[in-house]
Structure formats: C-alpha cells, structure tokens
Write a structure and sequence with these properties.
By secondary structure, this protein is mostly helical. It is built from 12 helices and 10 strands.
Length: 416
C-alpha cells in the first residue's frame, strides 16, 4: 500500500478496534489476504450482509477526525432474515435473537398456510383432495340430520294435540258402546243422518234454513262467536266436483278482512253432506278472520278441525278432501275398456269424443226418458187455435196470457 492508503487504513483500523488483534500487519493480512494459485479444498463460506454492521465512511483529512458518516443502506433495504448455510466444520453464524426471530417467521408462515389451505389433523390437504370431499360430505350429512331433528321438534306441540284427538276418535271406533255424547244443549247434528228427520226428507226445500241453523251452532260452540253472524253462505250451481269453497280477502287500503262460503248444489245434495262441508269451510274462514293466516290445510286449520271434533263427537273427522260419490244424471261407458264417465247434463258428443284411456267409443248408458206432457201443455195444445182466432191481430204473448187465465179458472172450478 502507498502512504496515503496506509494512513487511511490505519485510521479505520484504529476506529474499528482491529489494532488490538495483533497490530497493523496482522490486520492487513486479514483484510487484504494474498492471492494464491492453489485451489482450495473447500470454498470459503460467505457471511450474509445482514450480519455485518452498517458501513462507516471516514474522511481522509486529519482535521476531520470527529466526522463520521454512517450509511442508511441497511435501513432502506431491509430483507427478511434467513438462516445462513453452515457446513459440518463451520459453526452456525446466528445468535439466540436471530434464532427466536426465525422461529417466529416460521410460525407465521404456518399460520398463513393454514388460512390458505385446509388443515386437518397434522397434515395439509389440498382443496380438491379426496379427503376434503369426504369431510364435506360428512359435514353436509350432519347438517341435514340437525335440520331434520329441529323440524321434528318444532312440530311436537301441534302434533301432541292432534295425537290426543286421534286417540279419542280411534277409541270411539273400537269401543262403540263408550262413544262420547255431545254435551251441547240443543245439538241436532246426529239427527241429520236419520231418514225420518224433516231436514233429511225435504232437504231441497229446507236447505236454506238448515244452513243458517248449522252456521249459528258452529259459530257458538266451536269458534266462540268470533265469526261474523251475517257471513255470506250461498249455493253455487256450477261447482260440479268441489263440495264447497271459502273465498277470503281484504278491502282496499288495508281495510277489514272478509270471507264468504260457497256450497255446491250438485255435491252437497243431502243434510249430512251439508253438515260436514260447512264446518270444513268455516275452519278456513276462521284461520283468516281470527288468526290472519292463509295456510290452506295447515296447522291452524287442523287446530279448528280437531276443536270441532271435540266439541261435537258425533261429527266425522274433518278431512282435507271429501270422498262423496257424486250422483250424475247421465253415465257414459267405453265399449272397449268399460270405463264410465259421469255428466250432469247430456253434453258429451259421442261422435266427437272418445275414451281418454283407450280411445274407445263412448255409449250413453242412461238415455233420457221422454217426459209426459203437463196438464197446462195439453190445455194449450187443445185450445190454442180457437183462442188465436178470437184474438186475431194480437201477439203470441197475448194469446198465452188468455190461455193461462182460462186454465187457472178451469182448475179452480174443478177443485171446487
């Protein structure tokens, strides 16, 4: 080294404390080793930059001994610490602090891996592995079982009440001598199955009065008079298979709720059918007017149906659908499969329509019988021409009025 370089190196060695390790010559040998041409058996281990202190720059001027400039390269270029490679003969170049920091980094790396992948037991399983799919299936089955158990528990309250009523009804069926009698005063429901009853014998003439009487009885004994006393209950001629229907609604602007009941003339053709159908439809009206619920044949409807059965044990069990045998006036039969089709009127054209099951030809089984002419029709037939001549120039309506008056006077004379 020249004098200037030796002088600067001397200052640096003095500040770094190298002078205490054998003087300047030994320091020069360590810092500036002589190059040899002999190959080394093992490569020299390179220490990582993180183990060195920050470089110190010292001025060459003797007057600037107190000026020391430290580099900020280490603070600006920070890298995660890594464990240096060590050989068998070379001792590890890390202290206790670096070991603890490395363990913390390794622990944080494990946590990140756990979040990214599913960690089951002590091993990592990829997202698409077979074990993961099996675990998901097992979890799905367990969730389905839990939901099923919760649903079963939720229906226990209503089921207990329904079970109690069913037990009472089955007990009455198996032990007819111990049938519970209706305790309602003035109850006449049992008599509606007796052919000698006035309501059964003349049902067509008394069905309006019977409907009103039944509604008042049910409203008092089953629904505690919570239904309106003047609810509309009408008879419908167009309902051919449905026994009854309950129409529910609400007035515009969030007004009052209302309900009306329609009964079928063709299906409810007897007193006992009217009795059973009316209580069915009143249960629908109660769920809407009392509980503000439209649940069809749900829990509220079943509650009122069982309540009606307990209040009147002589009633049959109120079911969802009726099993009435509808009486059709006309019957058609297939000539191939013998299937029968009922109609209330002779409206089925056998030349155009065939059997829906086998496409066979349909034949009318009960042809319409010719009705005998009425006494008034015979009177018109005998006297129409003579009255027409008397009222020449008058309309047909005037002729028929004259014939009606003559027939009425003749009938009164014959009766007297």
């Amino acid at each position: 080294m020249n004098d200037a370089t030796s002088k600067s190196f001397h200052k640096v060695a003095k500040r770094m404390g190298w002078m205490d390790e054998g003087g300047l010559e030994e320091t020069e040998k360590k810092v500036f080793p002589k190059k040899t041409n002999t190959p080394t058996s093992q490569p020299q281990t390179r220490r990582p930059l993180s183990l060195f202190n920050s470089p110190v720059f010292v001025s060459d001027d003797e007057d600037d001994d107190n000026i020391v400039l430290k580099s900020t390269w280490r603070t600006r270029h920070t890298r995660p610490k890594s464990l240096p490679k060590t050989s068998e003969n070379t001792p590890p170049l890390c202290n206790d602090d670096e070991t603890s920091s490395s363990e913390e980094e390794f622990t944080s790396l494990l946590e990140r891996l756990k979040k990214k992948n599913n960690f089951i037991g002590n091993s990592f399983l990829p997202n698409n592995s077979k074990a993961r799919r099996q675990s998901e299936r097992a979890e799905t089955r367990s969730n389905q079982q839990v939901r099923l158990v919760n649903a079963l528990i939720g229906h226990q309250i209503v089921s207990l009440f329904l079970l109690y009523t069913n037990i009472c009804l089955h007990f009455a069926l198996f032990f007819p001598s111990r049938i519970m009698l209706c305790k309602t005063p003035g109850c006449f429901l049992q008599s509606l199955t007796n052919p000698s009853s006035s309501y059964v014998g003349s049902f067509k003439h008394n069905k309006e009065a019977l409907t009103s009487k039944l509604y008042h009885l049910y409203n008092t004994t089953v629904f505690e008079s919570k239904l309106p006393a003047n609810m509309s209950v009408t008879w419908n001629k167009k309902m051919r298979k449905t026994a009854g229907y309950c129409v529910t609604g609400q007035e515009k602007g969030g007004g009052n709720r209302y309900a009306r009941i329609e009964l079928s003339e063709k299906v409810c053709d007897s007193a006992d059918r009217l009795r059973d159908t009316l209580i069915h439809e009143m249960c629908h009206a109660a769920t809407w007017l009392i509980n503000s619920v439209r649940d069809g044949h749900g829990n509220f409807w079943k509650l009122y149906a069982r309540k009606a059965t307990l209040a009147h044990p002589e009633l049959p069990m109120v079911t969802r659908c009726h099993s009435y045998d509808i009486k059709y006036k006309f019957q058609y039969q297939c000539t191939r499969c013998k299937n029968t089709i009922g109609r209330h009127s002779k409206s089925l054209d056998t030349q155009r329509f065939v059997c829906a099951l086998c496409t066979g030809q349909l034949v009318l089984l009960t042809p319409s019988k010719p009705r005998a002419p009425t006494p008034f029709a015979n009177f018109v037939k005998e006297n129409y021409s003579s009255v027409r001549q008397e009222l020449a120039g008058q309309s047909h309506a005037e002729v028929m009025r004259k014939l009606s008056a003559d027939f009425a006077s003749k009938t009164k004379l014959s009766q007297s």
